[in-house]
């Protein structure tokens, strides 16, 4: 059996943060607890993060990196553009959901304390996701003649339309009901894909007038 790969101190701290969050909440998770849980000496934490705030923001970054990797994987598949687009819309919701569902009660507290820094990062997250979605929209325009003039603008609308299902927009009760959220994401994805792939109104034949 191959030996297990040893985590870097940075990854060990990020993993520790996600384990401690559901136990203690954001405000009660101290650097001492993080050091004990991760095995990284407290004084060494500052070699990787400026403080607890940056460490938890980096944990959010890591979730988004996972989302982007999942979107890129689906985008690279050889299935029809509409199929990939549907799966990507659902994935951007459910990958986030699954990443935070175990510390849902601490999520509001963390985002409240880090609101300003998080909102600044969130714009970058959404733009990166829109650009991956736009690549599949480009495929649809090229291969299936989708009537989209600006694929990046359309991708940004898809991002905005699905933001209502992301964890920070859901109640605690909703965060506890994975199947219901997945169904809502699937239904919304179907609606959005139908809109994207519908013929342009200008290209539809006019109904014949009755004589």
What would you say this structure looks like, in words?
By secondary structure, this protein is an all-alpha fold. The chain is 72% helix and 0% strand. The protein is built from 10 helices and no strands. α1 packs across α2 (31-38), α4 packs parallel to α7 and α5 runs antiparallel to α10. The longest helix has 30 residues, at 115-144.
Question: Could you give a short description of this structure?
Answer:
This protein has 211 residues and is mainly alpha-helical. Helices cover 72% and strands 0% of the residues.
Short descriptors:
211 residues, mainly alpha, Tetracycline Repressor, domain 2, 10 helices, 72% helix, disordered N terminus, disordered C terminus
User: For the terminal residues, how far apart are their CA atoms?
Assistant: 81 Å
Strand share of the residues? under 5%
Outline the low-pLDDT stretches: 1-5, 204-211
- Order of SSEs, N→C? HHHHHHHHHH
What characterizes the major β-sheet?
none
Q: What name does the CATH topology of one domain carry?
A: Tetracycline Repressor, domain 2
Question: How helix-rich are the residues, as a percent range?
Answer: over 70%
Radius of gyration: 21 Å
CATH architecture classification name of one domain: Orthogonal Bundle
Overall 3D shape? elongated
CATH superfamily of one domain: Tetracycline Repressor, domain 2
What is the highest CATH level, the class of one domain?
Mainly Alpha
Total strand count, please? 0
Structural class: mainly alpha
- The average pLDDT is 88
Number of contiguous helices: 10
């Amino acid at each position: 059996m191959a030996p297990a790969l040893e985590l870097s101190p940075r990854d060990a701290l990020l993993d520790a943060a996600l384990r401690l969050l559901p136990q203690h909440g954001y405000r009660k998770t101290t650097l001492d607890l993080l050091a004990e849980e991760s095995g990284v000496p407290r004084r060494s934490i500052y070699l990787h993060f400026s403080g607890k705030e940056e460490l938890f923001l980096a944990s959010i970054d890591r979730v988004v990196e996972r989302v982007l990797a999942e979107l890129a994987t689906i985008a690279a598949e050889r299935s029809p553009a509409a199929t990939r687009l549907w799966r990507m819309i659902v994935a951007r919701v459910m990958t986030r959901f699954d990443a935070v569902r175990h510390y849902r009660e601490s999520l509001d507290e963390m985002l409240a304390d880090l609101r300003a820094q998080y909102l600044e990062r969130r714009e970058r997250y959404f733009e990166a996701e829109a650009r991956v979605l736009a690549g599949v929209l480009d495929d649809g325009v090229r291969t299936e003649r989708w009537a989209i003039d600006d694929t990046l603008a359309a991708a940004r609308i898809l991002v905005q339309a699905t933001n209502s299902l992301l964890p920070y927009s859901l109640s605690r009760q909703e965060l506890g009901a994975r199947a219901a959220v997945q169904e809502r994401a699937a239904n919304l994805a179907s609606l959005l894909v139908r809109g994207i792939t519908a013929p342009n109104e200008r290209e539809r034949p006019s109904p014949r007038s009755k004589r």
